[in-house]
C-alpha cells in the first residue's frame, strides 16, 4: 500500500485519529495554526514543513502521517496545554514517531538527513 | 564525536550479538542499555519502596498495602533507554559521524569487514582504528545454563516479573541486582563460591553482605551450581538448581522462578580478527594490553574501555581515555588518562562509595606500620525517625603516615554514597591530608560531615 495523510486540529482530534490507526506506524508533525493566507504564526514550522514533506516517501508502507495544528500562539505558550502535558512536547515544530521516544524538535526538523533517519529507523 | 570535531572522517560500527535468549538492544553500549543506567533506575525503584515504608513514620497516611508492578517499571526504564539510543543516533548524524549497525572484524591491514544483521558484508579501510568492544556476561558452562538462566543482558528488559530468584555470583553486578530485586519485594537468594566483591576492601564487602542478609536476602556460601533443569515452563517458569559444595561433597538443590548469572564478564576480543592484523591479546583473559597512550602493539590500532588489561572497568574511565586519546592525536594535546584515584560506587541496598586504596592494598603497598585508619559509624538523621538501623552506616579513611598523613583511601557505606564520594575524590586528587580534612568544617546535618 503506500502511506496516507490525516490533517487534524487540536488535541482531542489528534488523540482520536492516533487511536483509530493503532497498529500501523504513525508519524506526526505538530505545527502552529495557519492564518487565512495559509501562513503559520510559527516561523520554524514554515521552514520545516516542506523539508518533512519531501521525505514522506521514505516512511514504511502502511504508515499514517498525521499533520496536526496545535492551536494559536497564546494556546501554545500556555505551559499547561494538553500537548505539553500529555505528549510532553517542548516546542514546535516537533516531528515524532508515535508510541516511541523517537522525535525531532525545532531546528532538527530542518535537516532532511535527520527526518529521513526518523522515517527509516527500526 | 570528538574526532569529528577535529574534522576527521569517522565511522562507528556497533552491533549487539543477541543473548542466548534472543535479547538485543540499541546504540549506546552496555552502560546505557544493560548496565549503569537501568541498574541505577531499578535501584532507585527499590529505594522508593523503602521510602514509602518510612513515610508512615513521618506522618504520611495511606491505607492500601503498597505493591510493585514490574512491567510498569521496566516499560518506563526501557522507554528512557530508547530516548538515549535515539539521542545518540541524532548526535552522531549531526556531527557527521557515519554509523553502521554492523559487526566489525579485521580482515587485513587497515581493513575491516562489516556484517549487518541481514548478513550483508561491506569492506572499509581507515588510517586508524579504535577498539571499544567491551565485555559480555560469562556463563557457567553447566547443563541448562544457556537455555534457562538469564544474565544482566536480559534482566533489565525482562517481559515478566522474575519472581523467586537465585543470583549466582558475588560481583557488584550480582549484589546490586540481588539488592534491588529484594527491595522490590521478591524472594532473593545469592549463591557465592568464595568471597564477596573480590578486589574491593573486604572489611566493607563483609559489611555490605551482612546488611543484605539482615534485610531479607539469603546467602548460600561456598557452593557452585552444577546443573539447571526446567521443572515447569512459563513466564516465569520454575527451575531446579543443583549445587555442589566447594568444601566437600555435599550436594543441595532448590527451586526458583529465575536464575540470574553474574559470575563475571569476558572481553569481546576473540572473534574480531585481531590475529589477522597482529594485535596481541592476553590469551587467558582476552584483554588487550596497551601502553600509556592506549596504543596496542600495532601502532595504528588503539583500544579503550573494559577490554584493556589491568585498567578499571568503568564507563567514565573509558570515555575520558577515548576523549584524551583523540585530543592527543588530532588536537596536539599531551594529557594522558589518569587511572589513579578513580572514585567508584556500588549501588547495593546500603550504598558503598570508594576512592583510592582498600585497606588490604594499602597495607601491602606501604606496610601496616605506615598507614593509619580513621573510622566512624554514623546514623543518618533521616533514618532516626523511622527507626532504621543505627549502627550500619560507616566511613573510613586510610592515611599514609610517611607522607603527611595524606589520604590514600576513602570508603563510605551509607545512603547517597556516590554523591558523597565524588567531592572527596577531587580533594584526594589534590593531595588531601588528614589535617586538611580535620580543618574542613562539616555541613550539618548531612552524612558527609562525618
UniProtKB/TrEMBL annotation, chain A:
PANTHER family: 42-9-9 PROTEIN-RELATED (PTHR12452), THIOREDOXIN DOMAIN-CONTAINING PROTEIN 17 (PTHR12452:SF0). Residues 8-121 form the Thioredoxin domain. InterPro entries: Thioredoxin-like_sf, TXNDC17-like, TXNDC17_dom. The keyword Disulfide bond applies. Keywords: Cytoplasm, Disulfide bond, Redox-active center. One of its GO terms (molecular function) is protein-disulfide reductase [NAD(P)H] activity. It comes from the Eukaryota. This is Thioredoxin domain-containing protein 17. The lineage of its organism: Eukaryota, Metazoa, Chordata, Craniata, Vertebrata. It holds the Pfam family TXD17-like_Trx. SUPFAM superfamilies: Thioredoxin-like. Its main location: cytoplasm. It comes from Centropus unirufus. One of its GO terms (cellular component) is cytosol. The keyword Cytoplasm applies. Coiled coil: none annotated. It is found in: Cytoplasm. Belongs to the thioredoxin family.
Automatic annotation (TrEMBL), chain B:
Pfam families: Pyr_redox_2, Pyr_redox_dim. Keywords: Disulfide bond, FAD, Flavoprotein, NAD, NADP, Nucleotide-binding, Oxidoreductase, Redox-active center, Selenocysteine. It is an enzyme of class 1 (oxidoreductase). The active site is at residue 444. Residues 2-322 form the FAD/NAD(P)-binding domain. Binds 1 FAD per subunit. GO terms for cellular component: cytosol; mitochondrion. NAD(+) binds at residues 169-176, 264. GO terms for biological process: cell redox homeostasis; cellular response to oxidative stress; glutathione metabolic process. SUPFAM superfamilies: FAD/NAD(P)-binding domain, FAD/NAD-linked reductases, dimerisation (C-terminal) domain. It catalyses: H2O2 + NADPH + H(+) = NADP(+) + 2 H2O; [thioredoxin]-dithiol + NADP(+) = [thioredoxin]-disulfide + NADPH + H(+). GO terms for molecular function: flavin adenine dinucleotide binding; glutathione-disulfide reductase (NADPH) activity; NADPH peroxidase activity; thioredoxin-disulfide reductase (NADPH) activity. Its cofactor is FAD. FAD binds at residues 40, 104, 306. Disulfide bonds join 31-36. Belongs to the class-I pyridine nucleotide-disulfide oxidoreductase family. Reduces disulfideprotein thioredoxin (Trx) to its dithiol-containing form. Homodimeric flavoprotein involved in the regulation of cellular redox reactions, growth and differentiation. Contains a selenocysteine residue at the C-terminal active site that is essential for catalysis. Also has reductase activity on hydrogen peroxide (H2O2). This is Thioredoxin reductase 1, cytoplasmic. It comes from Centropus bengalensis (lesser coucal). The gene is Txnrd1.
